[in-house]
Design a protein that fits this description.
There is one protein chain. The protein is α+β, with helices and mostly antiparallel strands. Helix content is about 60%, strand content about 15%. The protein contains five helices and six strands. The protein has helices at about 5-20, 25-80, 145-150, 155-170, 175-194; strands spanning about 85-90, 90-95, 95-105, 110-120, 130-135, 140. A hairpin with a 7-residue loop joins strand 3 and strand 4 (about 110-120). Helix 2 runs antiparallel to helix 4. The longest helix has about 55 residues, at about 25-80. The chain is rod-shaped. About 25% of the residues are buried. Mean pLDDT is about 85; it is low at about 15-20.
Length: about 190
């Protein structure tokens, strides 16, 4: 084989090796791809944390709304010091409210011919209930263990809703089960006490 043929063959071999390694721009291309992957993974991480933040906010808002909905009645039932306590015999029920005479039990409370109590599954005509009067009016709230449990029913519903968000939206299945179990226990206890 002549020397010129060997040289040209060697040149072709080196050019093949150079093309196998890539062009002089190959490191730039590799870096650009790496940057693209880093940007892609950064956006995936940002979306993931954004989803977690959004779902966490939704779960907290649901729980807050449940507490807010329950506290209107629960504060009167749980914080009874200084409030008028007694019993109401329900004699008449309308669309939203039931009424009946109030008999005082606590010191300083006065009898009333007619007080109102919200009509619900916890109140039936012809039955007598222990109640706490709301300040400055004739509206009564059912007291005792049944009254406490019934006052927290909206929070029990909020626990069930938040469990779905925690398990599905946040991917926290155990937390979802704990929230759901707590909500079911609260609602069941309220149902049995009423």
């Amino acid at each position: 084989m002549p020397a010129t043929a060997v040289r040209s063959h060697r040149r072709r071999g080196t050019s093949r090796k150079a093309s196998a390694k890539g062009s002089p721009d190959a490191p730039k291309t590799i870096r650009a791809r790496a940057r693209g992957r880093a940007k892609g993974s950064a956006s995936v991480v940002a979306l993931r944390y954004g989803r977690l933040a959004a779902m966490g906010t939704v779960a907290v808002l649901i729980l807050f709304a449940g507490v807010w909905g329950s506290w209107g009645a629960a504060q009167h039932v749980m914080l009874t010091k200084g409030r008028e306590q007694g019993t109401v015999e329900v004699t008449r029920c309308g669309a939203d409210m039931c009424t009946g005479p109030y008999t005082p039990v606590s010191a300083g409370s006065t009898a009333r011919a007619r007080v109102e109590i919200e009509k619900s599954v916890a109140v039936r005509k012809g039955r007598t209930y222990t109640v706490v009067l709301k300040p400055g009016g004739t509206e009564a709230v059912r007291s005792g263990p049944a009254g406490v449990l019934y006052a927290w029913v909206p929070f029990g519903g909020a626990l069930l809703l938040a469990s779905v968000v925690a398990a599905g939206g946040l991917g926290r299945v155990r937390v979802g089960w704990v929230l759901a179990g707590s909500g079911v226990a609260l609602l069941t206890a309220a149902f049995l006490a009423v």
